[in-house]
Specification:
It is a single chain. By secondary structure, the protein is α+β, with helices and mostly antiparallel strands. The chain has eight helices and 15 strands. It folds into two domains: 125 residues, Fructose-1,6-Bisphosphatase, Chain A, domain 1; 106 residues, 3-Layer(aba) Sandwich (D-Maltodextrin-Binding Protein, domain 2). The strands form three sheets. It has an eight-stranded mixed beta sheet, sandwiched between helices. A five-stranded mixed beta sheet has the order 12-11-13-15-14, sandwiched between helices. It has a two-stranded antiparallel ribbon with strand order 1-2. Strand 1 and strand 2 form a beta hairpin. Helix 1 packs antiparallel against helix 2 and helix 6 runs parallel beside helix 7.
């Protein structure tokens, strides 16, 4: 069943990507949501296409989407971000992707991340490994923070929280620090190209597919308190070996 769900999610992500690319090349209006984040016609049209494709394939499953919220079954539902990285999309930066995950009984069982600009397609199935464009991917085996690369999704969000001092400790402890942001940080961890990705101010649809991808690539995913959840607004993805050390530094 999960293979069929994965195939449906890939179809839906590709369809959403085609829609978003059309706008990416042709222009669009940008509106601000109540939380001051941007939304475009591309986001809305892409989410509608995803929901339609998945609804045809799995009519009994519920949906939780960024643009149109939740409906239907809660215990088995698709979690959808039609364009993760809308601010990048709006400014013509090609770091954005469609994220689709299947949540069953509180566990993420299928995850798909598709960047239509680069053509990159990350896929994962619970217990089935993680893949980039069909090839298996694996986290790095670096075991020391002094050799680790730290990715973040922006320093301003960290500065506004009680985690700033801990984050500075983490910066001091690691070898390199880069801000790549959004889905890309999780992909880099899963591919073994960086060891740590820390992000704040998040919604479940930002994290559902990335969580499974990182875990199936052999890494570890929790919030900044060490809980393996996508519902508390913070996310820490690592190669696993460094996770406890990173949590210890981050703690206020």
């Amino acid at each position: 069943m999960s293979q069929r769900a994965l195939e449906a999610a890939v179809d839906a992500a590709r369809a959403a990507g085609r829609i978003a690319l059309k706008y990416d090349r042709g222009g669009f209006e940008v509106a601000l949501k109540t939380d001051d984040t941007p939304v475009t016609q591309a986001d809305c049209e892409a989410e509608r296409a995803i929901v339609e494709i998945l609804g045809r394939a799995f009519p009994d499953y519920g949906v939780l989407g960024e643009e149109f919220g939740g409906r239907g079954a809660q215990d088995r539902r698709w979690i959808i971000d039609p364009i993760d990285g809308t601010k990048n999309f709006v400014r013509g930066i090609p770091i954005w992707a469609t994220l689709i995950a299947l949540e069953e009984g509180g566990e993420i069982t299928v995850g798909v991340i598709h960047n239509p600009v680069t053509g990159d397609l990350y896929t994962a199935r619970r217990g089935g490994g993680a893949f980039l464009n069909g090839a298996p991917i694996r986290v790095s085996d670096i075991a020391g923070l002094d050799r680790a690369c730290l990715c973040h999704a922006g320093l301003g969000a960290v500065r506004k929280t009680g985690y700033w001092d801990g984050f500075v400790r983490l910066v001091d402890a690691t070898d390199r620090q880069r801000g790549f942001g959004d889905y890309m940080g999780y992909g880099l961890v899963a591919e073994g190209k960086v060891e740590i990705y820390a992000e704040l101010d998040l919604k479940p649809w930002d994290l559902a597919a990335p969580k499974l991808l990182v875990e199936e690539a052999g890494g570890r995913f929790t919030d900044w308190e060490g809980r393996p959840t996508i519902y508390t607004g913070t996310a820490l993805a690592t190669n696993g070996r460094l996770h406890d050390a990173v949590l210890a530094l981050l703690r206020p």
